[in-house]
Amino acid sequence: MQLALGADSADGAQRPRAGVRVREIAPADLAAIAALLSRGFPFRDEHYWLRGLQRHAARPRPQAYPAYGYCLDQGGTPVGVILLLYSEVLAGRETIVRCNVSSWYVEPAFRAFGSLLVRAATRDKSVTYFNITPAPHTWPQVEAQGFQVYCRGQIYAALTLSKPVPRASVQLFADGESAGLSDFETELLQHHAGFGCLSLVVHDGADSHPFVFQRHLVKNVVPVYRLLYARDIGDLVRFAGNVGRFLARRGGLLVRFDANAPMPRLAGWYSERRGRKYAKGPHPPRLGDLAFTEAALFDG
Fold this sequence. Notes:
By secondary structure, the protein is an alpha+beta fold. It has two domains: 2-152, Aminopeptidase (3-Layer(aba) Sandwich), CATH 3.40.630.30; 154-274, Aminopeptidase (3-Layer(aba) Sandwich), CATH 3.40.630. It has helices spanning 30-40, 46-58, 114-121, 139-144, 183-194, 233-238, 240-248, 294-297, and strands at residues 2-8, 14-24, 69-74, 77-91, 94-106, 128-131, 148-151, 153-157, 168-172, 198-204, 207-218, 222-230, 254-259, 268-271, 277-280. Strands 1-2-3-4-5-6-15-7 form an eight-stranded mixed sheet. A seven-stranded mixed sheet has the order 9-10-11-12-13-8-14, sandwiched between helices. Helix 1 (30-40) crosses helix 2. The protein starts with a strand and ends with a helix.
């Protein structure tokens, strides 16, 4: 898709600007896109962006949607970018298409055209678009684009202080394991293990409960495991003691996960200073489901 871009004149008409257009990002653009994003987000190097884009390229994705997103192009050179990470996921028993809108950056000289990238990116009303990393100063702008809050904050919890379920056991997911898991969950755990995440299964009698965690350091010091996927956030609360002990043996005493309110059954704290997430479309993500998002693809 290509859109002509221009500057608004005094009478409100749009005047074309030669050589500037919005188009889909192609595989041949990835090195230039990584360089552009490393300028926009200087705390991330080009390798970080290329690794995530390559992971995204290698995984199954819904057809008939942009493979990577859109760029603002001037004479063949990307000068702006919005990454779009499309996935097919289950919402109840229905397979839906959703899109993680990620990493929007435009070079300063072209900022006047930045809103057109978003407009091109989020116009399919059958798709659920969501933003999991909006900076606080951008919240009013995101809301003006039609997005609504679906997650207000996050909890940091010491799961090891919870009482474990006596009959439950926690194991690393193994390739080929499927007992008690749907085909979708089996593939999800397999892919995320390949991204460097920790894919786990809690066995409770005949029942199996999938989880995906990602280890990171808060302020480069404190090891924390971030929940990227659970079948239901209630499973994390129920098996907190079991999961917490498993993660503690792997260096993580705290677990971070999305929430809209404190959870008195868990020892920890709730904060709305960060963690707000927005969605627009028919199926807002549920709490505890960040599968195949930038969190897994880029940070894993």
